[in-house]
Amino acid sequence: MSPKATCAPDDLRTSRDAVTLSRFPPTLCSPVKEAGDASGPSNENLPLKPLTAVGGKSSSVKHPKSRCEQSGQRGRRRMKANDRERLRMHNLNSALDALRSILPALPEDAKLTKIETLRFARNYIWALTETLRMADQHGHTPDYLASDLSSPASVFSAEWDSVSPAEAGYGTTDQSISYKSVDEASCKLFTRDESSAFPVTFYFKCGESDLRNTWHY
DNA sequence: TAGGCCATCTGGTCCT
DNA sequence: AGGACCAGATGGCCTA
Questions:
Q1: Which of A87, A97, A137, A204 has its CA 20 to 30 A from that of A26?
Q2: To 5 degrees, how large is the angle CA A58–CA A61–CA A64?
Q3: Residue pair A200/A186 in contact by the 8 Å Cβ criterion
Q4: Residue A187's pLDDT band (boundaries 50, 70, 90)?
Q5: What is the CA radius of gyration of chain A?
Q6: Which one is predicted more confidently, A119 or A4?
Q7: C-alpha–C-alpha distance, residues A127 and A133, integer Å
């Protein structure tokens, strides 16, 4: 984006020290009403974390006079902007949590980081798409999965378990996940149909590498 | 203790 | 004018 400006007005100029000294819990500088007003229509049930020290998670920092305490329109605008930004990031984190929830479950205490979640999701979607493609090649694509294979977004993992064998007319398609580490996991997809091309095991990666260059089964 | 991750503040830019 | 989005900066927490 744009380079940072270095010519802010004196009253708002941000030296490192100034920024540091300005950080303290929003509760101390943001009227409750304003924090609520900053929310959009979908924020009421957003579980806001306890307000913490600015720039950190502890409340043990001192709270010297900061920009937040400035009076005047500019200070109020900045406070409202901070509230909106905080809310925006909370919404972003909620979306990431929702994404984590539909990815194969991780072992306890192995929550994916943000970047790992995005990379894992990308590779997982790709692997599922490959699975469908292979099943299609072997003539084992149930109707309910025979959607447009070029559109991975139309495939939801929940669907694997959502149709009974009788409904689908095929062996049950299922998956089991095992993790070698947070960075690498294998996903075994199989059916009970003996003649099927399954089981197939995909190796997922959460790291930087492109799954399409490294995957195997 | 260093490094990774995270939440938050902040100012700039773009859009409505 | 105000809101959304973005990236830089900063400090706290956690772990190897």
A1: A97
A2: 145
A3: no
A4: low
A5: 25
A6: A119
A7: 10
Residue nearest to nucleotide B8 (CA to C1'): A55
> Phi and psi at residue A52, in whole multiples of 5°?
-120, 175
**DSSP letter string over A51-73?**
P--TTSS-S-S-----GGG--SH
- Shortest CA–C1' contact from A78: which nucleotide? B10
- Report the alpha-carbon distance of residue A196 to residue A156 in Å, rounded: 21
CA A181 to chain centroid, in Å, comes to 19
User: Residue A198 is encoded by which pair of tokens?
Assistant: 């399954």
- Mean pLDDT within A19-32: 32
The nucleotide minimizing the C1' distance to residue A96's CA is B6
More confident residue, A113 or A196: A113
Provide the pLDDT confidence category of residue A105 given band limits of 50, 70 and 90: low
Instruction: Please tell me the predicted confidence (pLDDT) of residue A139.
Output: 64
Q: Find the Å distance, CA of residue A100 to C1' of nucleotide B15.
A: 32
